[in-house]
């Protein structure tokens, strides 16, 4: 199904409108772009109330996915509407183009954000996302639809999900993670971490027998989001998430001035831990003589 929106959302076709791939592609080719404002919250409410109803073709047993495509910041509360959908088990993928607000995309999208948020500089570049997005969507649907048929269900709780994430030994460049493994040990762990204010996600793959990790080469004085995902042969368990900030870089202390002359001074200080160089800036006080 597809809806366009501005200040008045409009359903282009319902889930039950077409039954073949060719019909859907033909409908896309004939689609006329709708201009106007950006009321994303109103659009998400429209999708929930109009497009995801049984009489519009929504099947009760099917997984519900919403792909939001926007090129601007919402003029209403998109986060509240998105939370309503997510609370009902509807997954939201957010794709931003041009002037889209990345912070808003991350608020609207479902977790984990590294799989559900995308941003490109212009519309032609959307083609570069098709392959990856298709794989992510198909994998997501398979994971969820395998719940009932898989030997181990995709469920929350201690059987498949790690618990009790602890973040310790935090410095300006590193931190240590530990967690309690699920009752059924996973094959692997996938640890994803990135700055909360934006940055390229990095990931580490660990053997399922390991339940700790030391992260290094981090940026100082920065808040990091950390996720731990257990990976099994057929499914991925629920992720364990945490947030913490690295420490600021240490500062030199106890600055002292000595050996003053008419054109020189000597400075001394207590060293800053880990510093490899110092930058010393000197300027005349505002009321001082010409310098």
TrEMBL record:
Subcellular location: Secreted, Extracellular space, Extracellular matrix
Chief location category: secreted
Domain VWFA: 1-133
Residue ranges of coiled coil: none
Pfam families given in the database record: fn3, VWA
Annotated ranges, domain Fibronectin type-III: 161-250
Taxonomic superkingdom: Eukaryota
Keywords: Extracellular matrix, Secreted
Alphabetical list of PANTHER family matching this protein: COLLAGEN ALPHA, COLLAGEN ALPHA-1(XX) CHAIN
Protein name: COKA1 protein
């Amino acid at each position: 199904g597809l809806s366009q929106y501005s200040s008045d959302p409009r359903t282009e076709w319902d889930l039950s409108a077409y039954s073949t791939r060719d019909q859907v592609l033909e409908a896309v080719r004939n689609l006329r772009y709708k201009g106007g404002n950006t009321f994303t919250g109103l659009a998400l409410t429209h999708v929930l109330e109009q497009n995801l109803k049984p009489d519009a073709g929504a099947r009760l047993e099917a997984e519900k996915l919403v792909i939001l495509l926007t090129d601007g910041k919402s003029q209403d509360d998109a986060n509240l509407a998105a939370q309503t959908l997510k609370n009902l088990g509807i997954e939201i993928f957010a794709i931003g183009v041009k002037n889209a607000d990345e912070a808003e995309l991350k608020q609207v999208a479902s977790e984990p954000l590294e799989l559900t948020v995308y941003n490109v500089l212009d519309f032609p570049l959307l083609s570069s996302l098709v392959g990856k997005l298709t794989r992510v969507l198909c994998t997501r649907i398979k994971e969820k639809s395998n719940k009932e048929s898989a030997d181990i269900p995709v469920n929350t709780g201690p059987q498949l999900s790690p618990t009790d994430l602890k973040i310790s030994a935090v410095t300006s460049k590193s931190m240590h993670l530990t967690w309690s493994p699920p009752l059924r040990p996973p094959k692997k762990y996938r640890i994803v971490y990135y700055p909360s204010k934006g940055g390229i996600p990095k990931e580490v793959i660990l053997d399922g027998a390991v339940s700790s990790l030391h992260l290094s080469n981090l940026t100082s004085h920065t808040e990091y989001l950390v996720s731990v995902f257990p990976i099994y042969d057929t499914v991925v368990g629920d992720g364990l998430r945490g947030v913490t900030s690295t420490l600021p870089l240490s500062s030199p202390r106890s600055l002292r001035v000595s050996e003053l002359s008419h054109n020189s001074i000597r400075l001394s200080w207590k060293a800053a831990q880990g510093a490899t160089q110092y930058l010393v800036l000197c300027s005349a006080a505002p009321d001082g003589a010409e310098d």
